[in-house]
Amino acid sequence: MLSAHPLCNSNSCPNFLRRYRLTTQRTTLSSGVVKNVQESEVETLIGLLLDGRPIHTGIAIYTPSLDLDGDFEVKVKLDKRILRALNAEGAFQGRIINAENIGKSADDLVAMWNEDHPDDPVE
Q1: 59 φ, ψ to 5°?
Q2: DSSP string, 7-69
Q3: Would you state the pLDDT for residue 23?
Q4: At 74, is the secondary structure helix, strand, or coil?
Q5: C-alpha radius of gyration, the chain, whole number
Q6: CA dihedral sign, ordered 27, 62, 94, 36
Q7: Gap between the Cα atoms of 104 and 94, Å rounded
Q8: Which of 97, 103, 48, 57 is nearest to 81 (CA)?
Q9: pTM of the model as a whole
Q10: Non-local CB neighbours of 47 within 8 Å, separated by 6+ positions
């Protein structure tokens, strides 16, 4: 049995335990094997990214890049199937914080901020 994530508390917890449960329910793999495979994938991704080339995993494309300060970043482009599933009307079951702001422009958001924070306006 998997133990709780060290960052979990009653208000917020990563979904990694749920992901392991879903994976073990849909395969013949034990949770320990799933965890080992994930750790191996992370180590493999790091090793391949250090070669400086994009990596296609079937879930996403990971592309290493270098910013002007010399720091490495990794750009992630999700598989289209995942994006389609997330964007299907009514499919998303999570909580959207500030959902009332969907569809507003940047100018609308700045005006709202300035109204709520007159001592700290955005220009």
Answers
A1: -105, -35
A2: T--SS---THHHHHHHHHHHSS--HHHHHHHHHHHHHHHHHHHTTT--EE-SSEEEEEEE-TT
A3: 78
A4: strand
A5: 20
A6: positive
A7: 21
A8: 57
A9: 0.60
A10: none
Taking the chain (123 residues) in consecutive chunks of 10 residues, what is each chunk's mean pLDDT? 41 60 80 83 91 91 94 94 92 89 95 94 89
- Phi, psi (deg, nearest 5) at residue 25: -70, -30
Contact 46, 58 (CB under 8 A): no
Burial profile 16-30: b = 16 or more Cβ within 10 angstroms, e = fewer: ebeebeebbeeeeee
User: What is the model's pLDDT at position 16?
Assistant: 62
**Which residue's entry shows tokens 């849909």?**
26
pLDDT at 30: 81
Q: How far apart are CA 6 and CA 91, in angstroms?
A: 30
Which helix (DSSP H) or strand (DSSP E) does residue 110 occupy?
A: helix 106-116
Q: Which residues contact 101 (CB under 8 A, 6 or more apart)?
A: 108, 109, 112
DSSP 71: -
